[in-house]
Each structure stands twice: as structure tokens, then as C-alpha cells.
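Box 3.1 A note on notation
Throughout this textbook, protein chains are presented in two layers. The first layer is the amino acid sequence; the second is a C-alpha cell string describing backbone geometry. Keep the layers aligned when reading.
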Amino acid sequence: MDGGDRSADIASRLVDQVRQAIAGGTPLRIRGGNSKAMLGRPVEAAELDIRGHCGIVKYDPSELVVTVRAGTSLAELNAVLDAQGQMLPCEPPEYAGNATIGGAVASGLAGPRRPWSGSVRDFVLGCRLVTGQAKHLRFGGEVMKNVAGFDVSRLMAGSFGCLGVLTELSLKVLPKARELRCLYFDMEAGEALAALSRWRRAALPLTGALYMAGRLHVRLEGGVGSVLAACGQMGGDEEAPQIWSDLREQHLPFFGDGRPLWRLSVPVDAPVLELPGESLLDWGGAQRWLKSDAHAQEIRALAGSLGGHATCFAPGPGIEPFHPLPEAMLRIQKRLKTSMDPHGIFNPGRMYPDI
């Protein structure tokens, strides 16, 4: 399971490549499976490929912790966990088997279960990374109590490789639920959000809530008794669970539309607004996917009016992928980048200019 000698050699080569990049002032573009290359600003730099640094280092199902090298396929890790009746609760997308666990953490992308189970960063216990000083360091640990001091390991979640090169991750996993039921209801969007609000207050075991094309889809997971009782209380019609993996992997027909794909992150109780294009509500209304040719400023103004922000997947020319940051937050981001990557070699400009 470990393959330690070979991985030690690969890790050493990664450190050497970073050291040479620092010496030559040559920026690096960190890549794994390249499954999320469409997200973020293009990076013109020499490639640092971490896919060879793969394999599961340690997995103790009884401890609910797995330590895995960053180049490991997410599909491979999921298969190992599934064989033990366990899972990554944040449900990151596999993207046709190309996604790596390093890329999953670096992007911070989570699936339909995220509002009920937690984000990617919530399950990161520790990591090893190559720093901007070409040092291979370990941060955090393998237990949930290890949170003293500056939590570098969780900071890496959503950093898009701009702060360091992830080489190893320790992650919290959880048992799969004993019972799974999927229901759908034909109703208007406003009615669907009102129903979800009632079910949240009733503490029903929801782990997915999707609204599209006049239909609300919900997923319930937990103990047999609680799930069956919730189904009896909610009503609706039963359906196959395939829709949730199709949503996570963006295989639903909605995502096949050729227009730019926008992700609006808004408060869960935000009202339904008429958006310029086709929309899909995920995360019980807190994540709203939009296929639209509308101007970026219009879409971001709409997201802002709801108290949220908008990210463009696969942005076209002139469209910034990430929502502009307030000046104070931008200064903090730049100081963090300078502190962790003083030579500015890791994925420069991937998220924002000069970061």
C-alpha cells in the first residue's frame, strides 16, 4: 500500500525542482490530473507534475483517518474507502477519474452533501507540502484535536496551489449511512425553498437538495428508522440515486449547455431571482448554477444583491474567474502569498493578479 522508497525519490525530485525554480526565478504551474484546469486564470509557467507521487500511506478504518499522497486518484481513494463502508463526506467530484486528492483539496470543490456534512477543509487533518523556501514540511496531524497554532493544512484548501505544493494529506472519513432514499416533488422554486426551510427546522436527515426544471429532488441518509420516518412525513415520489453522482460530476443535461457556467454562492434563505439564463439550485438553494451569456458585471451584481458572490467556470476572454475581493481582503491575500511563497513561483496569478 505504501511504496515508500519510490515516493521518497519522487518527493525529493519535487523539492529539487522547486529549489531550481527559486534559483532561476522560474514560476511553476502545479498540476495533478488537470481536471480543474478550466477553473482559474491561465498560468504560463513550467509544469510541476505531482501525479507520480501517489498511493495510500496509512489507513486505519477503526480510526476514521486516511493518509494519502497528493497525486493519488480520487476515484482510487473512494474505492478503498467504499470497500470499508466509509466515504469522504464532502463528496468532491472525480471528473471522469482524472481528479487527484491533492487537486480536490487545493480547489476546495465539494459535492451535494457539503451543507450537511461540511466543506473539504473541514476534513483536512494535516498535510505535507513543499514550501516557497524549497523545504518539505509537515503540518497538522492525524487527529481532530490537533488544531493548536496556525492551521496551515486547512489553509491549503481552496488555495489553488498558490501557497505551496501539497504532497501528502491526512483526512477524516466517516461511515456510510445505513439507509439511503431519494425523493422528488413537482413544485415551483419558491415553494421548494419554503419546503426545504421547514424540513431543516424539523431536523430531517437531508444530505442533498436540488431544484431544476420545476422539480425538487432530495436525498435522505441516516439510520433506517429516521430515514423511513422522514419519507413518511415528507411524501413525494421515490427515484434512483444516480442523479446525485450526475450532479456532483456535472453530467446532468443542464451542464451540457455551451454557454459559460457560473456558480453563485448565496445565503441559503436568499430569495429566488430571475437570472439571465438557465439556472439550477443546489445545496438547498445556497449554490445556484447558471448557464448564461450575460455580462460578468450583471451576474456578479445579482449575486451581490443576494449577499453572495459568483465564480465563472471556464471563463472566456476578459472574464475574471473569481469574484473581485474587497481591498482589505486583497491586501491580506497578497501578504499571505508573500509570506508562504516569497519568490512568487507557485501558480502565479491563478486566482488573482499578483497572487
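The longest strand covers residues 165-172. The longest helix spans residues 4-24.
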